[in-house]
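re: ur question from earlier - yeah i can do the single chain one, its not a big deal. heres the input i used so u can compare w yours
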Amino acid sequence: MYEKGFSHSGRHLATLAFVALNLLLLSSQRASALTNVTLAWDPSTDASVTGYRVYYGVLTGVYTNIVDAGSATNVTLSSLQTGTRYFFAATAVDNLGQESVYSAETNYVTAGGPANQPPTISAIGDQLVTIDTPTQPIAFTVSDANSPASSLTVSASSGNASVVAQSGFAFAGSGANRTITITPVSGASGGAQITVTVSDGLATASTSFQLTVSGSRPPPTFTAAAASYNGLFYETNQVELPSAGAFKLSTTAKSTYSGQLRLQGKTYSVSGKLNASGHGSNSVARPGLNPLIFLFDCGSSNDAVLGTISSADWMASVSGDRLRFNSRTNPAPWAGSYTLVLPGQDGTDLPKGHSYGSVKVKTTGAISFSGALADGTRISQGTYLSKHGMWPFYASLYSSKGLIISWLSVTNAPADTQDIDGWASWIKLSNPLAHYYPGGFTNEVEAAGAVYLKPAASTNHIVHLNQGKLKFSGGDLPDTFTNVVQLGLSSKVINGSTNALSMSFSLSSGTFSGHVLDPGTLKSKSFGGVVLQKFDSGYGALLGTNLSSQVELTQ
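and the output i got, formated as tokens:
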């Protein structure tokens, strides 16, 4: 047994298909202040599986220990503290060393502690909704004297399945603060007693309330139309990997709709028929995971989609815009080329280098991005701008173990102001096999972009510099160093320093790349970046041994 770094709450993912592992507690044995627990599971039916690993810790979803069980289907965990709740999950490993996602979690309170007290749940008042209308998220609280609130599980049942089916419940929230959203059966009216139950794994507590679905339909205010929407979804208080993604949706004049949800490297299709108010709903099955509940409204506004996407333990807000641009009758006013920089950050566990890329906007409102993150990851995206110039920027990264997401604003700004702006969330889960930043990180960066124009003639420089300074700093460079450079015809770079440097610009996109000899190590290292023409400067990253460094071109 060995200690393992804290696992991100977004769960461990790998390319191996999930194998259902049913963990069973076989026995426990106490010895003085410590105790042993034996777990067992059914063998996988996948012939490629060669072994199993068991993860455990004292917080749900946070596993601080790992045991490699080899090919055995049981394991005894020793030296556990008495009177403590432990959480367990298992994974399968195939003959290529690929590891599945976690199994369903189980938990157990070791003997020797105080008697378990049942959890508590707050009362919920009676609810009233109109036919074909889900409730708003209904808030309630849970607690437990013996366990952290984050470890408690909640469930619900209906006393009248013809009004509220079991599939009509969606929970969100975390810790002590939870919510439930209830979607009645389509076309049904009447009443149902709803019971919400909280469990600590050993005892339960419940609260009940009456849900009444009124048979009076609201007057139709929605006119169905052929339209397309693009947008993002994420939790309102913090972006989390399991609950953040992008979507696209199309509607027709016959009130039908279809679309896609992109989440953690997977694409889920949705379709259905809008109700009289322009509302839609889907329950999306996910093998080995809880279903996604997608509720949206495109009837309250002709230009937007609002709603929620939820699973058993989270709820994300959905927002998107109708695509309005047309190259003939309504061209996008921001058509052109841009360059974009996501600044590097301080801290040994965060990329110091600047992430960068080039952007193109078409008159149709289509926007494309191609670039590189400061950990060496190549990234690209294609989507559409809203009529207000909002860009739903999203990419799934690291084989579904990370993401970058933001609403970026594209404008025609004055000469001294950036044209693209917005805060981006960049998440990378820990991965011991990653070359750069294996410990992972969660990073918030403010993007900055500017319009880019290809130099009109060979005598025009890509930036207004005859001579500049190319500075390299941070990361695993022993010391900061600067090369003096001159720009010649067609922006050809001439090195004016003693250490070797080769560098070239792509005049069509505004990017640059090159190699430089680090005076501190006498090793040649590659770098890349983009210029921000408005500010006569350039920004990028140099990739070192396992960290990135900043590259900055200035006067």
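The radius of gyration is 28 Å. not sure if urs matches, ping me
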